[in-house]
Amino acid sequence: MLDQLVKLNKEDSTFKGKLNLDAMGMSGHSFGAHTTMAAAGQAMGGLKVKEPRIKAIIPMSSPVPKLNLDRAYADVKLPTMLMTGTLDDSPVGDTKAKDRRVTYDKLAGVDKWFINFEGGDHMIFSGRLAAKGDRKKDAEFQRCIKQASLAFWDAYLKNDSAARAWLAGKGLEEYLGKFASVEAKLNK
After folding, report:
1. Within the chain, what is the greatest distance between any pair of CA atoms?
2. Are 69 and 106 in contact (CB under 8 A)?
3. Per the structure, how many domains does the chain have?
4. How large is the angle between the packed helices 161-168 and 135-157, nearest 10 degrees?
């Protein structure tokens, strides 16, 4: 995908010269979060696929690897905003909601956030395939996910000091309000 963006920035009439390829972030949900973590440097057994063009990541519902956790996360050195929900048990695999914070706890030497949506299950990040859940609450989760993500991308891909201050201060916490708790650890 990144190679395709490079090509579009060079050749496509719509995108030519418009993409900032020095400020690319990556986000994904569930298996997409797994891929995002791999691109950020998380060890996947003997496989290493770290992508140096990625500058910041937002993994949502990130699975916990079945490896030595210190070793698995040792090469992840990007600003990270992890998102999950208090009911985010994996529908595939065996990662439980309470285990989703492992990535946050194991990342070291990076600016990192852990957002945990109260009552949020695995599907709040990608929508629902069936008529389940509380639609009004899901809409609030989506609003919070979008705003937190936008501020994070602005802070780390655009070097926006106001966005960074909003994240680091009480702005994000107040915005999330009753819908989510947030923890942050900034690498000084």
Report:
1. 47
2. yes
3. 1
4. 130
Q: pLDDT tens digits for 45-61?
A: 777 789 999 999 999 99
Q: How far is CA 31 from CA 9, 27, 38, 39, 161, in A?
A: 28, 11, 11, 12, 32
Strand order from edge to edge, sheet including 54-60:
24-29, 54-60, 80-87, 112-121, 180-185
Find the domain containing 117 and state its range: 23-123+133-185
Question: What confidence tier does 180 reach under pLDDT thresholds 50, 70, 90?
Answer: very high
User: Which residues partner with 28 through β-bridges?
Assistant: 59
Report how far residue 1's alpha carbon sits from residue 157's, in angstroms, rounded to the nearest whole number: 18
Q: What is the CATH number of the domain that holds 111?
A: 3.40.50.1820
Task: Fill in the DSSP letter of residue 65.
Answer: P
Residue 29 located in a structural domain: yes
DSSP 8-class letter at 101: T
- What tokens does 148 get? 């937190």
Burial 1-10 (b: 16+ CB within 10 A, else e): eeeeeeebee
How high is the pLDDT of residue 48?
78
